[in-house]
Amino acid sequence: MEMSNSLTMEQEFKLQVLRDEVKSLTREQAQEYLVEVLRQSMVKENLFKHWLKGKI
Known about the structure:
- This protein is 77% helix and 0% strand.
- The protein contains two helices and no strands.
- It has helices spanning 9-22, 27-55.
- The two termini are 16 Å apart.
- The mean pLDDT is 91.
């Protein structure tokens, strides 16, 4: 299976929408948002690892 670092057109669009939205955030809001995104990424990583353990 080939892994790619590129994004789909839909993901690129969502990323641009997010860029536009975060421009209006205060510094504090942006920091809180960043921490929450990282937390969700960690949860996703844990779920993926758990799923892989069950598949192997």
